[in-house]
Amino acid sequence: MYLFMEAAARGTFPVYFVAVYVVGFIAAVSIGSIAWYNSKRPAGWEDAQKPSIVPEIKTDNSSEVNK
Fold first, then answer.
1. d(CA 29, CA 23)
2. Is the pTM of this model over 0.70?
3. Are 11 and 4 a contacting pair, CB within 8 Å?
């Protein structure tokens, strides 16, 4: 960590390089969480409620699954 801090202080470490990784990680976690919550539930979790922050994604068979 010290190496990165020292490089950033001298201005030789490209900030945009780190920004791309940070934004990409946040996007991957967000999209992955939404996909996981909207996927089929594992055995024993079929009746579990998903968090209200996760949007409902409508598909052709979603009306059959939610009944």
1. 10
2. no
3. no
